[in-house]
Amino acid sequence: MQNEALFKQLERELHSFKPLLGKASDSILNEGVSTYPIFIVHKGEIDMGISLVDHNKNGGEWSINASILEEFAAKQLIKEDKIENFQKIFKDPESYLCLFVLSEAGANFIFLPRQVEDLSKQN
User: Fold this and answer.
1) Is 117 exposed, middle or buried (0-12, 13-18, 19+ CB in 10 A)?
2) What is the spatial distance between Cα 55 and Cα 45, in angstroms, rounded to a whole number?
3) Is the pTM of this model over 0.85?
4) 61-105 pLDDT, tens per residue?
5) 8 A C-beta contact, residue 14 and residue 74
6) 98: how many CB neighbours lie within 10 A of its CB?
7) Distance, CA of 106 to CA of 43 (rounded, Å)
């Protein structure tokens, strides 16, 4: 239940960044950097990935860094024996954004649909 509430909150708060994240994901895929783009969504400072959105500059609550599975493996955030399992559950990056969310609830992977929905239709 808590993850669902976090998902809905993130969906609303990151709505305007979906086009930017989609372009970054496409660049990672098209340039052959990785077939597993991961976006780190955080409120603090981290030394990982490439900064795309800085909450200090945009006045929002979240910062977003672009990373890849290979960096997560190199930094042992995903253990070598878990990489194959992660690859199996990884959703199509042309349809979903893989978010690694660092929040008060802990660290979670969330797959957010890339298509930009009209949030005014949601309750």
Assistant:
1) exposed
2) 10
3) yes
4) 889 999 999 999 999 999 999 999 999 999 999 999 999 999 877
5) no
6) 23
7) 12
DSSP 39: E
- d(CA 28, CA 21) in angstroms, rounded, equals 11
DSSP string, 67-100: EEHHHHHHTTSS-GGGHHHHHHH---TTTEEEEE
Tell me the CA distances in angstroms from 55 to 89, 92, 98, 102, 119, one per residue in order: 29, 28, 19, 14, 22
Q: What distance in Å separates the CA atoms of residue 67 and residue 49, rounded to the nearest whole number? A: 4
Least Cα distance to 40 among 117, 110, 118, 114 occurs for 110
Boundaries of every domain in the chain: 2-114
